[in-house]
Amino acid sequence: MVYILQICSVLALASIAIGAPNEKRAPTVYLAGDSTMAENGGGSGTQGWGHYLQYSLSAPVSNKAVAGRSARSYTVENRFQTLIDTVKSSDIVIIEFGHNDGGSLSSSDNGRTDCPGAGDETCKSTYNGQAVTVLTFPKYLVNAGQALVAKGAKVIFSSQTPNNPWEGGSFSYGPSRFTTYAQSAAKQVGANAMFVDHGQYTANIFKTLGKSKVDSFFPNDHTHTSPAGADTISRAFVKAVLCADGGVLSGLVKNSTASVEGACI
Ligand SMILES: *[C@@H]1O[C@H](CO)[C@@H](O)[C@H](O)[C@H]1NC(C)=O
Question: Between β-strands 61-63 and 122-127, what pairing exists: parallel, antiparallel or unpaired?
Answer without folding.
Answer: unpaired
